[in-house]
């Protein structure tokens, strides 16, 4: 059995940044830069997920609007109907969905509420750390047992 989104989220931490639909692009870019995040979920007036602003969306907005981009808000550039995941979903399936949808971030929904976001980097880091833990445990097992001795 592989790990779940909950395990990956606990591993990275649950801190979540969000913006409202009327948040200006400049504020979003500052938030993402200061916190070193690649995407931010956008919430509607009822605190439900309305969309996602990613680095790709910011670059596309700049390319399409030039300097007029400063007059735009989250609602103008956010991706709508973004794929999401749940806390109990297998992270390998989540990684596949990210690949299929060509997205690097998936909002996490639990009981209808946004509870986090997981990135492809979070999944890769979790899997690498998991592999290192397994390798270390196997090495400890071999060295602490008689499996490491060579019989003559």
From TrEMBL:
Keywords: CBS domain. The keyword Transmembrane does not apply. Residues 12-69, 78-133 form the CBS domain. InterPro entries: CBS_dom (IPR000644), CBS_dom_sf (IPR046342), CBSX3_CBS_dom (IPR044725), Diverse_CBS-Domain (IPR051257). It comes from the Bacteria. PROSITE patterns: CBS (PS51371). It holds the Pfam family CBS. This is Cystathionine-beta-synthase O. The lineage of its organism: Bacteria, Pseudomonadati, Pseudomonadota, Alphaproteobacteria, Acetobacterales.
